Amino acid sequence: MGGPAGCPPSLGPLPLLCSQPKSSFFSPLKSPWRPGCLPGIPGCSRTLQGEFPRPPERSGHSQGYGEGTCTPQLPWPHPYPLLFPPALSTKETFLVLSMHNKLRSKVQPPAANMQKLEWSSELGRQAGARAASCLEGPAPPPAPQLGWSEVLLPAGTGGFGAVLELWFAEGQRYDYRTGRCAGNATCRHYTQLVWATAGQLGCGRHHCPGPHGPSEAFVCVYSPGGNWEVAGTPILPYKQGPWCSLCTAGLSGCFKSWDHSGGLCEVPRNPCRMSCRNSGRLDMSSCQCTCPPGYTGRYCQGERHSQHGGAFRKEECSCLCDVGYGGAESANPLLCCVCPLLPALPRPLCLSWGGRH
């Protein structure tokens, strides 16, 4: 039977799993691939080589693992399934992300530099692949650019909401003054969840059968990762202080949760801190308004007048006059505007002053 296009005919359509060097872990696909054709074998796309994880050595399951080699996909249970598990639904993604940010807004003592998390599909794929392994095999190696939190619970225990509450509850045993957890308890899920400089998040879960009953794996990946130590001394996950008081210049916005509690540093939605009126368009790079025809002024607040290019501010019954003409700020503003109090005067008149016409 011939294989898919690009695969050796002798292999047929049998799915193959390709490995990586022992020192590497998981790297998600960066390019599309054809079903039945995976890297590491002659005839397959060279651009995809090395993109699949190395499965842990498990006797009786397969042979020939090694860099640049392939082996037939094995029936379940297998350390890493061939296909990526389905991503979280849009609804669940929103729940996980919003609950993360809500919990980060509730830390005590208050955080002065806590960033708002944004969802990353790339991290979500990595978390989903790790969850699909049912947390078997080696855990992801610690790396400063990624932080991992994972747990395997009996099926039916609860969804991500219950898991995040469980992780956040670890904070009750965390001493912010020392940066350590009381007794022999663990607080690493909590400190990763509230690591201030983490800006991106991706999570995944997977239903796992097992000899002792079904279970469910939950995994979240954070970037950049937390839980750092210096010479054996843990670094505090955030800086204490009034909410948003130590946000960086690029994250000068302060995001409030629906109940207006706490505050998270975020990219300001309007860094210019201004808006254009009368359908004007704001250029964020220059913080200037481009006004539609008939309007003028910094905020497009003035209605342009045909005589001498003046503009009328309706709410103040005053004029915005061009250079060389009197305005509401001149010594005698009556030289500029005649308020349209009578139907016979539908617009103000901008009159010249200072000898210019």
TrEMBL record:
Residues 48-68 are annotated as: Disordered. Signal peptide: none annotated. Pfam families: CAP. Disulfide bonds join C291-C300. The keyword Cytoplasm does not apply. Residues 268-301 form the EGF-like domain. SUPFAM superfamilies: PR-1-like. Keywords: Disulfide bond, EGF-like domain. The keyword Disulfide bond applies. It comes from the Eukaryota. PANTHER family: CYSTEINE-RICH SECRETORY PROTEIN-RELATED (PTHR10334). This is EGF-like domain-containing protein. It comes from Cyanoderma ruficeps (rufous-capped babbler). The lineage of its organism: Eukaryota, Metazoa, Chordata, Craniata, Vertebrata.
